[in-house]
Write a structure and sequence with these properties.
- The chain has 82 residues and is mostly beta strands.
- It has one domain (2-71).
- Helix content is 0%, strand content 46%.
- The chain is globular.
């Protein structure tokens, strides 16, 4: 299990999988709402959880796609329409 302790998030968390032979960085979108938030990154194989370090709230859970460097949220870009 990989644990990133005390990482400060931009709007994208960055993870390096130790099992990657070429040690690529994977960028995981968590949203601008959490920019500047200190996070914990828990990873077991391809399962990743990003947790707010102060509150313990799970900000994002995903299964990493090793063929893609950027892991978006799946939402369309831009603000939500009302």
């Amino acid at each position: 299990m990989l644990v990133g302790v005390g990482s400060r998030a931009c709007h994208v968390a960055t993870v390096r999988r130790p099992s990657d032979s070429e040690t690529r960085l994977h960028h995981i979108e968590i949203g601008r709402t959490y920019a500047g938030t200190y996070v914990l990154i828990l990873a077991e194989d391809l399962n990743i959880q990003i947790i707010d370090a102060a509150t313990g709230e799970i900000l994002r859970e995903l299964v990493l796609d090793p063929t893609r460097i950027y892991q978006g949220t799946g939402r369309p870009p831009g603000p939500t329409r009302k």
